[in-house]
């Protein structure tokens, strides 16, 4: 079976299979023909980077890489030189695909591959090895530069099939979302999911309430920030009453947002949980209970367990907390060039440590309580390592020291707050812009607090919990 079953097999609605904001609608044949033309140009390359703006060209480039069996490396389009250089160098990408009308960053240092939606090829490619890498997705750890998670083709297929089962997702659906095309949520679920199930895809460009309201779909994806903004717009929310299923993920959906959304749209949202490394592993079901504050049950093929601080099992009593570990066919193949990170992430008996703290009830329902580390921040559904932002801040000549925390934020879930010890005249705004220019824009601090020194314990470690408490009063 092929990875993009419906696209390659010719099932599902053909006309207007894909539409992104006000760009041209592409039929399945147009998409496949243009993507095959990309495949012809990239076949044999070690990896294909894609400047992942929310455009049809991005989808065509990604599909082209997948058809040719070349690992695809989505490059966040707003990533600054520091982040971009790391991703391109570490991944070994030989080419950077971009829309023909677009200019790729001059400093990329790899050959550009302009993508033209009008190109066509009818070459047929043998289905690549299911064990091969489909994507290299760069994702933050608590410290250092992002790590390249190697996502296998069979993991993508297993996850999409498990989600189709949990959400009763079929070719009859029209999927709507406006999420970025360089993460699991927007790209793997939000694009490949449509191309595997055969559902039409309407991408709204940005995930705005007005865009979602106007799209007229049956299946909607969003991060909690998107749902919270929609729930604050009564008129837009009411227009989702005709949908079949609303799905939230990438960060915890606050119970009041769940309830308001249900009241305004008539649909209790599905909440599901996952990670870049594991894809989506736990979800409530279209045909099951949708309990506020709960992410439901492991999806088909996935196993979960809770492990206590002593390494022993934690009872599934709905109260006892433990680290959530996962195993199954949706797991990634490891981190590229990072045996040290692999050694930390996997247990001796082959389970992946999520770093999330959870509770499981006697009925098997999972509740995510939080993260074990304060240094992994989720802001607007983006995963951001405090260490990476701190390192970028320290690169500024007027910064002596910096510590970053994720302060609770009603809109973004967590907002990045930076505590900075200045070493010369500098403003918070200058530091925010400095980070936004060097890393991705969403990694910028939303607030900068200039302090004479950072609170440290006797061992010299910054007291992040104290900074978090301070940030709540700021
Ligand atoms: C503001 N902007 C700036 C600056 N300040 N640009 C440069 N320098 C500055 N100092 C601009 C930005 O470029 C952008 O411009 C605009 O301000 C708004 O950006 P921002 O404030 O970041 O947007 P937001 O409104 O806060 O975004 C909320 C959001 C976004 C839309 C919900 O956070 C989002 O798309 N989140 C989705 C994340 C996601 O997909 N995560 C999935 C991870 P312009 O408007 O021109 O762009 S995968 C995952 O988690 C798994 C596996 C799972 O479970 O799903
Ligand atoms: P990422 O690798 O960007 O996908 O981030 C994965 C992290 O997002 C997980 O480790 C969780 O901390 C968080 N996450 C994803 N979905 C949920 C959810 N439904 N509830 C709570 N946290 C979530």
TrEMBL record:
InterPro entries: AMP-bd_C, AMP-bd_C_sf, AMP-binding_CS, AMP-dep_synth/lig_dom, ANL_N_sf. SUPFAM superfamilies: Acetyl-CoA synthetase-like. Residues 388-461 form the AMP-binding enzyme C-terminal domain. PANTHER family: ACYL-COA SYNTHETASE, ACYL-COA SYNTHETASE FAMILY MEMBER 3. Residues 48-336 form the AMP-dependent synthetase/ligase domain. This is Acyl-CoA synthetase. It comes from Kitasatospora misakiensis. It comes from the Bacteria. Belongs to the ATP-dependent AMP-binding enzyme family. Pfam families: AMP-binding (PF00501), AMP-binding_C (PF13193).
């Amino acid at each position: 079976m092929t990875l993009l079953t419906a696209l390659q097999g010719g099932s599902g609605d053909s006309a207007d299979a894909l539409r992104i904001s006000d760009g041209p609608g592409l039929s399945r044949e147009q998409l496949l023909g243009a993507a095959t033309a990309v495949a012809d140009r990239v076949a044999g390359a070690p990896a294909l980077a894609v400047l992942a703006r929310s455009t049809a060209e991005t989808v065509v480039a990604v599909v082209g890489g997948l058809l040719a069996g070349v690992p695809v490396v989505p490059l966040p389009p707003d990533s600054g030189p520091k982040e971009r250089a790391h991703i391109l160098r570490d991944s070994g990408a030989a080419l950077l695909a971009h829309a023909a009308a677009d200019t790729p960053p001059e400093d990329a240092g790899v050959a550009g591959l302009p993508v033209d939606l009008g190109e066509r090829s009818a070459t047929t490619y043998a289905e690549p090895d299911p064990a091969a890498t489909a994507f290299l997705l760069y994702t933050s750890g608590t410290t250092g530069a992002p790590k390249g998670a190697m996502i296998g083709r069979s993991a993508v297929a297993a996850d999409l099939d498990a989600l189709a089962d949990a959400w009763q997702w079929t070719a009859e659906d029209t999927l709507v979302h406006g999420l970025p095309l360089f993460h699991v949520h927007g790209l793997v679920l939000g694009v490949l999911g449509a191309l595997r199930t055969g559902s039409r895809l309407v991408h709204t460009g940005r995930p705005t309430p007005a865009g979602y309201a106007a799209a007229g779909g049956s299946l909607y994806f969003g991060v909690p920030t998107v749902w919270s903004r929609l729930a604050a717009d009564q008129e837009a929310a009411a227009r989702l009453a005709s949908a079949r299923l609303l799905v939230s993920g990438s960060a915890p959906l606050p119970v009041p947002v769940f309830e308001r959304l249900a009241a305004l749209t008539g649909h209790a949202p599905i909440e599901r949980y996952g990670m870049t490394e594991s894809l989506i592993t736990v979800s409530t079901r279209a045909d099951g209970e949708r309990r506020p504050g709960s992410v439901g049950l492991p999806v088909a093929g996935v196993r979960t367990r809770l492990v206590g601080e002593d390494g022993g099992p934690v009872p599934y009593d709905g109260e006892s907390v433990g680290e959530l570990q996962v195993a199954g066919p949706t797991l990634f193949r490891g981190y590229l060039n990072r045996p040290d990170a692999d050694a930390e992430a996997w247990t001796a008996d082959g389970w992946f440590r999520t770093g999330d703290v959870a509770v499981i009830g006697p009925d098997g329902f999972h509740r995510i309580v939080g993260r074990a580390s304060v240094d992994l921040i989720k802001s607007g559904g983006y995963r951001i390592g405090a260490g990476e932002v701190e390192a970028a801040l320290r690169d500024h000549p007027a910064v002596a020291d910096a510590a970053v925390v994720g302060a609770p934020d009603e809109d973004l879930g967590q907002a990045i707050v930076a505590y900075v010890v200045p070493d010369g005249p500098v403003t918070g705004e200058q530091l925010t812009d400095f980070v936004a220019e060097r890393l991705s824009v969403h990694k910028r601090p939303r607030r900068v607090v200039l302090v004479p020194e950072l609170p440290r314990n006797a061992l010299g470690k910054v007291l992040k919990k104290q900074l978090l408490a301070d940030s709540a009063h700021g």
